[in-house]
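Translate structure to sequence.
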């Protein structure tokens, strides 16, 4: 619900907010420019200033101090009124005062859209929308990060999500301040909150009538520093009944020109001080540096609007379209879905269709719609994402509280499948909470909580296979994800490892296909999509509907897309790729994998890979021109046909791109796994971690689990654990 409340006002008001934000950003520069051109008047009182100016400009009527500190004198020259910028030190006019027409036009556009009252109403409503959007966005961001204490942590998610959140985070405080002060100013404009002060507190006051005192000798004016001056209106020399009107930052009053003392004075009340402060905070007039900060914050609004719209559009495109959704009262199977961005609904739709084809009566609904199952229900299946680090997604936030209020179930079996990202310490944490809560109600668990990492289709299909076998039905899963646009790539070289053609491993290098490649090079255009080592190359085999992902060894700057592929028995995509000959073409796309990157700096890297998992690791070593300390632990079945990149690695050790190379071969005479080598070096590795080293693991899931267990043993007694290192982004994995 909160996401909807955040998105809808943003969509409605986006164009207005972008316009107001951009004009506000431009206006924020003017106070800084004006402050830079102002002449300092430190140590000068108003009496001295008025005396100097009146001596140089006999026709002076009013002195105004701008928020920038510039002193402007309005004076008569003959029958013409002029405005001049004053040098406070001498009282001389140094330039004509000409307010910027551009600034005036921008202010009118910013404040009222050049439309007077209708425009003021629109911008006031826009300020209210902005304040609500920013505060609701802040709450969503805190949920995503795992709590308020983690707001400054690493932002995770896909590229669009990170761009939206990372651009919002530094701008949040400025946008809240701009929106709140703008709303207060709008409310005051229309009289919805008091402005303070009396309408005319000094009406009918008359001077003593004696001869007028020199301005420089007036005690009241001597007591006010020029830095506190707002406006000084001098008494007309042609009107004996006229008085001097003085406005300062603290109050306003009337001065007797004959005695130089107050006839009346009133300090600013609370409302007047509030509005003065609000105006200063909103405009930056008087706080030029704050104006620049707010202007910079406002520059984020167009980017936030664009990325927010694209995220909303992506969620709309992934909305579920369920066919043959059985009424709840007729269903024998309830399928509940917890999703934040509707991605989980795509998997749920495929499962719903497969269960329906198998003859089950399935009703699918959001998890928030949980009700006590009726007597005909035999199965409860839950597919839920985890938001952030263990939080409930949007459509499941009410599930656990409502479940606690329902009657205990009997005769109903349940299964839970969680969707998450292993880069979070509490991977699929919410799914485990749901499983435990359902078990506590008395329902029978069909099995342990299933998990899917980063929308992995193979993992989803594997769980569905288990579910079908457990239920005794054949499930025909027809899941088809939305794919990005692909690029045609041509195989330019391959190196094969292994004597058995059924299990060989190939290092494949691709480049853009066809004659266009030469033209793109000649024109200086990038030959490949932008990617870095460790990103994923998605390949859709001919006749296939779903991609398979392979870690990229190379970066786009290398001019090729290099991957390592091991042929799997019955593997459609691996068989297709390892069967290619140079000159053959594939359709592929790149999926960023920013979570699997070496941390910035010169701290040591401990690289751990097995089999084709060496791919991105050797890519990191290749690009280690700074000779950062890198240590590689590599495992394979045998040195004869499984030692990928052997000669290249030896060369890297010689030129110090790689400090140490440690190998483990499970089918050699000295049989060992990579985790055995880690445990043998436990002391050195523990010391490296204490000194700030980062661990990067790439390979199969079973290997990764064994490596994680080994590291927990290595870290015993150090006060650290793998879970803590993951939270600190010092233990990252690329697991398949």
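Result:
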């Amino acid at each position: 619900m909160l996401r909807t409340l955040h998105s809808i006002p943003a969509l409605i008001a986006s164009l207005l907010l972008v316009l107001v934000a951009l004009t506000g950003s431009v206006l924020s520069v003017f106070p800084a420019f004006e402050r830079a051109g102002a002449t300092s008047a430190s140590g000068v009182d108003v009496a001295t200033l008025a005396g100097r100016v009146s001596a140089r400009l006999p026709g002076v009527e009013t002195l105004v101090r701008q928020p920038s500190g510039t002193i402007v004198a309005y004076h008569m020259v003959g029958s013409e009124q002029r405005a001049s910028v004053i040098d406070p030190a001498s009282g001389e006019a140094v330039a004509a005062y000409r307010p910027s027409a551009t600034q005036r036009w921008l202010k009118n556009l910013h404040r009222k859209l050049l439309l007077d009252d209708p425009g003021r109403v629109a911008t006031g409503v826009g300020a209210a929308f902005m304040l609500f959007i920013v505060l609701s966005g802040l709450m969503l961001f805190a949920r995503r990060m795992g709590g308020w204490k983690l707001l400054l942590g690493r932002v995770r998610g896909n590229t669009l999500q990170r761009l939206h959140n990372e651009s919002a985070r530094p701008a949040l405080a400025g946008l809240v301040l701009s929106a709140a002060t703008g709303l207060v100013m709008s409310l005051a404009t229309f009289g919805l909150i008091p402005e303070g002060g009396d309408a005319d507190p000094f009406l009918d006051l008359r001077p003593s009538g004696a001869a007028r005192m020199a301005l420089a000798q007036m005690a009241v004016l001597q007591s006010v520093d020029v830095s506190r001056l707002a406006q000084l209106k001098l008494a007309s020399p042609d009107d004996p009944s006229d008085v001097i009107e003085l406005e300062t930052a603290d109050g306003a009053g009337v001065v007797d020109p004959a005695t130089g003392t107050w006839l009346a004075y009133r300090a600013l009340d609370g409302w007047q001080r509030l509005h003065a402060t609000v105006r200063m905070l909103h405009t930056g007039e008087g706080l030029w540096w704050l104006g620049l900060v707010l202007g910079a914050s406002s520059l984020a609004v167009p980017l936030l609007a664009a990325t927010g719209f694209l995220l909303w559009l992506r969620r709309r495109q992934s909305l579920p379209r369920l066919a043959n959704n059985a009424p709840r009262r007729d269903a024998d199977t309830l399928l509940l879905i917890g999703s934040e961005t509707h991605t989980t609904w795509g998997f749920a739709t495929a499962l719903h269709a497969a269960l329906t084809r198998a003859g089950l009566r399935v009703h699918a609904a959001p998890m928030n719609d949980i009700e006590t199952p009726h007597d005909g229900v035999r199965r409860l299946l839950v597919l839920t994402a985890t938001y952030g680090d263990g939080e409930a997604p949007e459509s499941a936030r009410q599930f656990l509280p409502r479940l606690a209020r329902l009657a205990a179930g009997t005769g109903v079996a349940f299964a839970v499948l969680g969707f998450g990202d292993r880069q979070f310490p509490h991977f699929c944490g919410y799914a485990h909470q749901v499983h435990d809560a359902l078990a506590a109600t008395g329902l029978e668990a069909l099995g342990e909580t299933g998990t899917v990492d980063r929308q992995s289709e193979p993992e989803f299909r594997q769980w569905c296979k288990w579910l079908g076998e457990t239920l005794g039905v054949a499930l025909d899963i027809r899941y088809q994800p939305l794919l990005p646009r692909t690029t045609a790539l041509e195989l330019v070289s391959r190196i094969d490892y292994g004597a058995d053609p059924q299990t060989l491993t190939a290092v494949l290098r691709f480049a853009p296909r066809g004659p266009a490649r030469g033209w793109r090079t000649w024109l200086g255009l990038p030959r490949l999509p932008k990617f870095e080592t460790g990103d994923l190359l998605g390949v859709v085999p001919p006749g296939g509907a779903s991609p398979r992902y392979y870690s990229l060894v190379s970066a786009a700057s290398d001019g090729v897309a290099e991957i390592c592929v091991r042929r799997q028995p019955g593997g459609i995509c691996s068989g297709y790729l390892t069967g290619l000959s140079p000159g053959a073409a594939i359709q592929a796309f790149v999926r960023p994998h920013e979570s699997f990157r070496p941390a910035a700096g010169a701290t040591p890297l401990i690289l751990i890979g097995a089999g084709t998992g060496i791919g991105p690791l050797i890519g990191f070593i290749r690009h280690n021109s700074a000779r950062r300390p890198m240590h590689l632990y590599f495992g394979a079945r045998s040195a004869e046909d499984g030692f990928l990149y052997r000669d290249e690695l030896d060369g890297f050790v010689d030129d110090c791109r790689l400090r140490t190379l440690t190998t483990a071969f499970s089918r050699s005479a000295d049989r060992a796994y990579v985790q055995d080598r880690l445990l043998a070096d436990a002391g050195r590795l523990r010391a490296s971690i204490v000194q700030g080293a980062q661990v990067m693991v790439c390979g199969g899931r079973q290997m990764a689990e064994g490596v994680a267990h080994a590291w927990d043993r290595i870290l015993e007694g150090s006060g650290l654990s793998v879970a803590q290192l993951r939270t600190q982004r010092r233990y990252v994995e690329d697991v398949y």
